[in-house]
Amino acid sequence: MVRKTVLSNGIRIVTEKMPGVHSVSMGIWVNVGSRDEEPHEQGVTHFIEHMLFKGTAQRSALDIAMALDAVGGFANAFTSKENLCLHAKVLDSHLDLVVDVLTDIFLHSLFADEDIEKERQVVVQEINMIEDSPEDLAHILFQQHFWRAHPLGAPIYGTQESVMALDRSKILNFLSRRFAPRAVLVAAAGNVDHEAFVDLVAPHVASLNHSRHAPHRQPPQVFCHRTLLPKDLEQVHICLGFPGCSQADPERFACHVVNVVLGNSMSSRLFQEVREKRGLAYSIYSFVNSHEDTGLMGVYAAVSPENVAETLDVITAEMDAVRRDAITASELDAAKEYLKGSMYLNAESTDARMNRLAKNEFVFGRHVPLEEVEKAIDAVTVDDVRAWFVKHYQPENTAVTLLGPVENTADDMAAA
């Protein structure tokens, strides 16, 4: 059962009771992410995520870690382009402890200057680590060019320069502007009683009362590009894409079906043709990135420099085939079962259910039952899939990024 309470200051509390489990996953969410940052404060949301574990007036960083370790719990946080989430999972008997700890660090973190200086170096190392991961870097650089000059294209963690420029005043200014009560949601899933959870949470968060309204998010413009990014690597990392679906797009289920058929499973067309039949790549897949008001669908592959042209030809041929001939009825049925199976298996996790509660509330303003999603998936037809793909995939407007030893691949890029 899903229950929702809205406090007088606008903070939402949403819970889902899951019979038969002994744990509770709790998250404090803010509908703010890297797309909400100004150019001079890039990376500040992610930096705040790091700083939330560095101590409050009541607890040191060690106290915070020990409090949850002592009861076998787990706490972490993440930042996306549209959300920040501080979350934990404990046995239901320790829910009062996790509420006390998470609300304390969310509301009373010190953001001490000395901690900011130390954590700045940690975040810089994180940026360097991503620079050493070419697959991750290829996706990030592709999006920078795909959504050029828009905050959605900026890396979530910022740049070394922007992180080095952050200070306590910039952090607190961003918090006061963006972390308003109406952007905050507290979610819990597992063996949790709604009224009891509200009684635990409300006294802590009721004092949050600054009520600035966040500026309306502006959708980005898409830039078709052909970008060569030389880097001393063994492989060329290919990332290409085109406009996809937003999180609330009524046609999003057709998008996800074609993603499974094209490259999001081991039986997919791209995996079978590029890896199994031709042996061109170890890693090849398609993906969908969806946001509040926009999205992209793309393909990633890592190949030897001499195989770039053939790989691009195969990817293009497979996408042209979907656009021209659609998918088969058997592919449609298999993709539907894949999507429904993944959804229901994921739903057995309290963490996943807690995440789903928050995202549905932010995107739709309500709980979306799994059965409603299943029905929407089942309603997708072959014609729906083809119509969606024809509408969104235009070969001449596909963006492509090549990262690695690309000095001799200009002709391959021109043909893509």
UniProtKB/TrEMBL annotation:
One of the GO biological process terms: proteolysis
Cofactors that this protein relies on: Zn(2+)
Residue stretches spanning the membrane: none
Domain Peptidase M16 C-terminal: start-end pairs: 166-338
Family matches, as Pfam families: Peptidase_M16 (PF00675), Peptidase_M16_C (PF05193)
Record-linked InterPro entries: Metalloenz_LuxS/M16 (IPR011249), MPP/UQCRC_Complex (IPR050361), Pept_M16_N (IPR011765), Pept_M16_Zn_BS (IPR001431), Peptidase_M16_C (IPR007863)
Domain of life according to the entry: Bacteria
Molecular function (Gene Ontology), one example: metal ion binding
Name of the featured protein: Putative Zn-dependent peptidase
